[in-house]
Amino acid sequence: MYEKAKELYGNWGIDTETAIEKCAGIPVSLHCWQGDDVRGFEKGASGASGGIQTTGNYPWRANNKTELMADLDFVFSLVPGKKRLNLHAVYAITEMDTDRDKLEPHHFDEWLDWALRRGVGIDLNPTLFSHPLAADGMTLSHSDAAVRNFWIRHVKACRKIAAFIGEKQKTPCLNNIWIPDGLKNPPADRLSARLRLRDALDDIFSVTYNKHHIIDAVESKVFGIGLENYTVGSSEFYIAYAATRGITVLLDNGHYHPTENVADKLPALLAFFDKVALHLTHPVRWDSDHVVLFDDEIKEIIAEIVRNNAEDRVLIGLDYFDASINRIVAWITGARNVQKALLYTFLLPHTEFKYLQEAGNFSKLLAMQEEVKTLPFGAVWEEYLARQNLSTDWFKSAEQYERDVLSKRR
Ligand code: RNT
Ligand code: ZN
Question: How confident is the model at residue 157 (pLDDT cuts 50, 70, 90)?
């Protein structure tokens, strides 16, 4: 089947071998928080807050570092391609109950060790939610300087950790800041909190690190649950902030109005920013954080990377948390779908399509764009998997893991 597929793609001027090779080299950062519903290892951790929510009560989430690391190993073993690990600060491994403003690089030694042994790079996200000082939904933009300063210290601690990790692993560690800050009801003042956020970030970034060790990003959002009327860190705020401060913006495709096209935002930003980061998710009517599907939205987002040769400029990460089904299955399915989208878009005749557009031949462009959709992608996908000692027949391994490992858990 692969030989036939290779020939059919060849008729379109597409080399399946090059596509497979390129696909295998693009790092995708797998989020650790799908394994335990965004709980982390802090004492008394009870799950996501701050406008985000995990839904579902499938049993057997990871309860500790040993279980989470085992689950990650299992997931990584069934996902093709080059992988990174996307961590959150609450997954720090501390001796006592170290508060978040006291975190140090050594609290991530075990993760770094785990990652170095596997040749995997680490990315980090400071955790500015699920904490008593974030209980009213305000952190870096809080009107109380004591609260603000706690969170400033936390993000500074995370940047120090990220820079340390980046130096050790010899690839930059993405440190992505997302904050829940917002209001449920109509605000009386939309400016003051934004000025406080701007100043807090300036304080945070007044500490400088080697750009080969850390990439700083800010993640905007349109609204959170319980914070529907106002989001301090909106899209305009962070794009303007990042552009004027020389840092990176992170687009989470669940963080826009449902009819906005997130794929279209990528080239707009690539015209001005050296790098853009992504949290890929599947929003259903809202920022629901469902498992990433192999759907048109994801294909189009990935296509904007591939057809603009921006593989080195767009940092791909995942962000979803489904607790309604086997969490490992959710993890693998979403990660594989990103891999599918990568391979699928490497198999499109972008050069010819661009030429048709430039030449104004829109009839042929539309006709051809629709024709390529029925090329035998599945055969190339299976070949890609086979070359990594994987196959489409992975579900039974997940069932086995559920029987042998997960179902033995508390
Ligand atoms: C929340 C943001 C944020 C979180 C993770 C857990 O809406 O998407 O990235 O989902 O950091
Ligand atoms: Zn996100």
Answer: very high
Question: Quick count: other Cβ atoms within 10 Å of Cβ 96?
Answer: 7
For residue 220, the CA-to-ligand 1 centroid distance in Å is 10
Pocket-testing residue among 37, 178, 291, ligand 1, by greatest number of atoms within 8 A of Cβ: 178
Q: Which atom of ligand 1 is nearest to the CA of 287?
A: 7
Binding site membership of 279 for ligand 1 (Cβ less than 6 Å): yes
Please check whether residue 373 lies inside any domain of the structure.
no
Question: Is residue 29 a contact partner of residue 316, using CB atoms and an 8 Å limit?
Answer: yes
Q: Is residue 10 one of the residues assigned to a domain?
A: no
> Which mutation among 86, 90, 127, 252 tests ligand 1's pocket best, with the greatest number of atoms within 8 A of CB?
252
Measured from the CB, is residue 31 less than 6 Å from ligand 1? Answer: no
Question: Does the beta carbon of 181 lie inside 6 Å of ligand 1?
Answer: no
Q: Are 131 and 180 in contact (CB under 8 A)?
A: no
User: Can you tell me the mean pLDDT for 72-94?
Assistant: 98
Ligand 1 mean position, distance from CA 357 (Å): 37
- Closest residue to atom 2 of ligand 1, CA basis: 178
Query: pTM higher than 0.90, yes or no?
Result: yes
SS3 287: coil
Which residues have a Cβ under 8 Å from the Cβ of 72 and sit 6 or more positions away?
Answer: 30, 32, 35, 85, 114
CB atoms within 10 A of CB 114: 18
Domain that holds residue 257: 27-329
Establish whether residue 42 lines the binding site of ligand 1, counting it when its CB lies within 6 angstroms of any ligand atom: no
pLDDT per position as a tens digit, 22-70 = 999 999 999 999 999 999 999 988 888 888 989 999 999 999 999 999 9
Name beta bridge partners: 30.
85
Q: Could you tell me the CATH number of the domain that includes residue 232?
A: 3.20.20.150
Band of the pLDDT at 202, cuts 50, 70, 90? very high
Q: Is the CB of 219 under 6 A from ligand 1?
A: yes
Structural contact between residues 338 and 316, judged by C-beta atoms closer than 8 angstroms: yes
* Protein residue closest via CA to atom 1 of ligand 1: 52
Structural domains in the chain (count): 1
Whether residue 339 is contained in a domain is answered as no
Is residue 234 one of the residues assigned to a domain?
A: yes
Question: In percent, how much of the chain has pLDDT > 70?
Answer: 100
Please give the residue that has the higher pLDDT: either 266 or 96. Answer: 266
